[in-house]
């Protein structure tokens, strides 16, 4: 991969090499240790749809029936207590993802200082 830096009157081209495996391990450590963790504890009559789990890093998910029921038009639905943690990744993890995906030309990467 190459990185081009513009100085006063010239462009400087750098060749950047990295170990993908080590970068993946570093990203995992960053996510595990530096993420903002939001704990959720809700009661609902349905389970969150699958795109919620795809779009968010959800961990420690647990759903249990409360024994209560919610009455709808022609049916009763069980109430569940749902507990889980949402990990909000730090920006550094996003930038590592961009490098791993080869999207280093994304303007957001260059304005991170």
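Sequence proposed for the structure above (113 residues):
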């Amino acid at each position: 991969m190459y990185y081009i830096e513009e100085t006063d009157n010239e462009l400087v081209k750098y060749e950047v090499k990295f170990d993908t495996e080590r970068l993946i391990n570093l990203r995992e450590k960053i996510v595990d240790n530096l993420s903002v963790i939001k704990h959720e504890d809700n009661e609902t009559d349905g389970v969150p749809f699958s795109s919620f789990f795809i779009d968010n890093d959800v961990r420690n998910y647990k759903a249990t029936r409360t024994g209560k029921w919610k009455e709808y038009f022609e049916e009763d639905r069980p109430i569940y207590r749902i507990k889980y943690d949402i990990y909000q990744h730090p920006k550094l993890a996003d930038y590592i993802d961009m490098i791993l995906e080869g999207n280093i030309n994304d303007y957001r990467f260059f304005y991170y200082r």
